[in-house]
Design a protein that fits this description.
The chain is mainly α. 70% of the residues lie in helices and 4% in strands. The chain has one domain (3-288): ABC transporter involved in vitamin B12 uptake, BtuC (Orthogonal Bundle), CATH 1.10.3470. The chain contains eleven helices and four strands; from the N terminus they run H-H-H-H-E-E-E-H-H-H-H-E-H-H-H. The radius of gyration is 19 Å and the shape is globular. The strands form two sheets. The chain has a two-stranded antiparallel sheet with strand order 1-4.
Length: 302
């Protein structure tokens, strides 16, 4: 493989890995606070794409307004799910919350079929979803890379930096980190735990919406089960990086994205096994370091 080809595949890998990281963070933040795997997170990702699509096609919003609207609408959807489905089970056995998460996932998928239709919708510039200029090519040393790829990497970096700032430089971020360690003690300090948990769901769902829009721009279609595979891979990324660790989710997402692209790039005959690499990486990490790359052992909350 030439140096130019390697660079082109590396940029694509960083773009894909960044999207996985954005989705994985939603899993890891919810788990870090509630010890709950939110299996509906991949479906929230799908709804973010639908919100953006219909905001442009049905309500004729400018594409950038539609994308911002989608992020906030998806964030409120995440908070609504937490309030209706998860909060009443806060003190219930963990198996009850787990079953509820699976049920919410099934409900969102089937509601999407009824509300939006089972047929895939085209998410590309020809339908006016975003400018055609995003598909223009930039020539760097003989390598032609779409403008969209650089936009994706830029947005991913900006979103991750904003997340780190919120978590480590704001009061709500301090409350999130405190609740992840000890909810009862944090409540005694005067923190409204329900509000913090709702904000966590909103933040994770908003990041999922950003990842969903970028995913749909990269793979231009949306249907009710769009988020199933990306959501599963993002969950794998969260486990590989260390479930409960934001930095681990970032690392896991990039590892997964880079592995998928680069292995196929170096060994094209394995392209049909691309999805299998994610599971192979997961098994290897669980065997070598069960807590994940940046994960630490924690005791079960009571």
């Amino acid at each position: 493989m030439s140096l130019a080809g390697f660079f082109q595949h590396l940029v694509n890998a960083l773009s894909l890995g960044g999207i996985y990281a954005l989705i994985a963070i939603g899993y890891t933040m919810v788990y870090g606070i509630l010890r709950l795997i939110n299996f509906a997170h991949g479906d929230v990702f799908t709804y973010g794409i639908y919100f953006a699509f219909y905001a442009v096609v049905l309500f004729l919003m400018p594409w950038w307004v539609a994308f911002v609207f989608s992020i906030f609408a998806t964030a409120f959807l995440g908070a609504f799910i937490e309030r209706i489905a998860y909060r009443p089970l806060r003190n219930a056995p963990r198996i009850s919350a787990l079953i509820t998460a699976i049920g919410v996932s099934f409900f969102l998928e089937n509601f999407a079929i009824v509300a939006f239709g089972g047929r895939a919708k085209s998410f590309n510039p020809q339908t006016g979803i975003y400018p055609t200029s995003f598909l223009n090519m930039i020539n760097i040393g003989g390598v032609r890379i779409p403008v969209l790829t650089f936009i994706t990497i830029g947005i991913v970096i900006a979103a991750l930096v904003l997340l780190i700032w919120i978590v480590y430089r704001t009061k709500i971020g301090m409350a999130m980190r405190a609740i992840s360690k000890d909810i009862p003690t944090t409540k005694l300090m005067g923190v409204n735990a329900d509000r913090v948990v709702s904000f966590t769901f909103m933040l994770g769902s908003g990041l999922a919406a950003i990842g969903g829009i970028l995913w749909a721009m990269k793979y231009p279609q949306v249907y009710p089960y769009t988020g199933m595979i990306p959501g599963l891979k993002a969950f794998i990324a969260a486990v590989v990086g260390g479930i409960g660790s934001i930095q681990g989710a970032m690392v896991g997402g990039f590892i997964l994205g880079i592995s998928e692209i680069m292995i196929v790039a170096f060994v094209p005959s394995l392209a049909g096994y691309r999805d299998a690499f994610a599971y192979a990486i997961l098994l290897f990490v669980l065997l070598v370091k069960p807590t994940g790359i940046l994960g630490v052992e924690v005791s079960e909350k009571v």
